[in-house]
Amino acid sequence: MSITPVPDRSAHTVNTIVDLEQGAAAGAVAGFAAAAVMNGFQSLVTPLFRPQSGDGPAATEQAAERVALVLSGRGLAEGDRRAAGTAVHYLVGTATGALYGAWAERRPGVTRWQGLGFGLVCATLIDQIAVPLAGLARPPWRYTLRTHLYGYASHLVFGLVTEQVRKLLRDRIARRRPAATAGQAIGRQAPDDRAMAIDDVCVPLLLGLAGGQRTFTPPAAITIAAASSGLGLEGTPLALLNSRWTGLLFGAAAAGEYVMDKQPGIPARIAPAGLAGRAVGGALSGAAAARPGKAWLAAGVGAAGAIAGAYVSYRVRMTLARALGRDRPVAFAEDALAMVGTALVATYASARQKQREQADTLVRHGGTAAA
């Protein structure tokens, strides 16, 4: 009797997530490097192209000025504006590189022409369309042909360097992946030390760090994941987290925390009571997301991450609030970081559990067939 292998969709989902993350990371590094090369290229060819300058500061400096006005209500001094404009340039390069790297994982065809097509798209969408529409530059038809050639040449260099660095980084990552074994013949992934490290340490650590910012957000996300798709908690002391009512309770507590966090007179998160609650939440979330037999390790990592996250996030928030002169923008940014980050980690943990269950099922069926 033979068993027809069932496609492991959970494994495919996890592999896709990992590939997208690695592609985005490689693209981000490549975009940052390409932004630096683009700056050097522009310095060299400016005398040749003699691009037409705008009516005021560079678009990146104007963008930085607008952000400062929105966040703090104050403009930037000239020296600060130049530094902030440079930061915007590198931030845009890094962000576009990350998007390109992630998209290249799903659609390898975008890497044709060694990144030159990517550079052309960036020049058209950013320089020719987005920047003028945002009021950071004059309409394209009000610039000379030399200026347009200068912009397109600069972005061609940006695209070319981005692709070469991205490809180099992805090749290095691919060479470090473990080779397939016979266990994969029935749809089961080979043991992957990197994936185990993510499951046993990184997942509870990230949940704990998020819990250091918002106590109830990680338990709410993990409970929702357990109730909707399961985290293998049946028959364990944490089986209560599979209940939708538990998820509703934690979700309401998380929503209330977001509101109370903005109110004056709330005790600091690094107070003993606040730290204790965050440690418990981090331990609970880490244990629920752990692999079988690793709950205690994950609970400890989650608790430690929550305490560390509380101290770090508190210092960062106080520093940024003083710099901006306002606390609420920082608080809302912290809300978004905690929610999005926790949702991504919970989704990953749920997908990994499905993958393990599928692999166990295939192994049992394979053993039965062999018998």
From TrEMBL:
This one is known as Uncharacterized protein
Keyword annotations from UniProtKB, A to Z: Membrane, Plasmid, Transmembrane, Transmembrane helix
Transmembrane spans: 295-314
Q: Does the keyword Membrane apply?
A: yes
Output the Pfam families linked to this UniProt entry.
Answer: DUF1440 (PF07274)
Instruction: Tell me the superkingdom of the source.
Output: Bacteria
